[in-house]
């Protein structure tokens, strides 16, 4: 499923997008979380998790569904979902994890994050999922507010490991789609 309207297009990524995804993933993670740990820890995390090789492997795995958002023919953001991925202690099986949804800072306040989010919700519903869950850093108030406006509620906590010496406290948030 792809969407194209006015100045916005959202397309499904495959492994040929690994270079592009690596570039945008590094930038958006640093823009969103760069102050959450020592720069050495952040840089090591980004280098390890958002390398071209790592993203190519993720894109080869059909469980990882990436979409890229373009605005005026420029890459503006991306998302990653995993269908049928219940959170720990979940009793529901038909839930998806919204693992990543990021916009480049220069595209904030244009409603693009909402478009990408709504696209993902539609995709998830089409795949017969009954809920969406995610982790969000407790100090990322902008993201927390966004998710709350879209109906998510915090149901648990999680320590997101940046390095062996540093973890960021996260909310586990859930959106019921029933």
Describe it for me?
The chain is of the alpha+beta class. 34% of the residues lie in helices and 35% in strands. The chain has five helices and eight strands. The chain has an eight-stranded mixed sheet, sandwiched between helices. The model has no long low-confidence stretch (mean pLDDT 95).
Summarize the structure.
The chain has 178 residues and is of the alpha+beta class.
What value does the Rg take, in angstroms?
16 Å
Written as H for each helix and E for each strand, in order along the chain, the element string is EEHHHEEEHEHEE
Chain-averaged pLDDT: 95
Ends distance: 22 Å
Report strand order across the widest sheet: 1-2-3-4-5-6-8-7
Low-confidence stretches: none
Q: Report the count of strand segments.
A: 8
**Largest sheet data:** 8 strands, mixed
| β-sheet strand percentage | 35-45%
Q: How many DSSP H or I helices?
A: 5
Globally, the shape reads: globular
- SSE-based structural type: alpha+beta
Helix content: 25-40%
SSE layout:
Blueprint: E1 3-5, E2 8-12, H1 18-33, H2 39-49, H3 52-60, E3 64-71, E4 74-82, E5 95-103, H4 112-126, E6 131-137, H5 141-149, E7 153-163, E8 166-176
Parallel strand pairs: 5-6
Antiparallel strand pairs: 1-2, 2-3, 3-4, 4-5, 6-8, 7-8
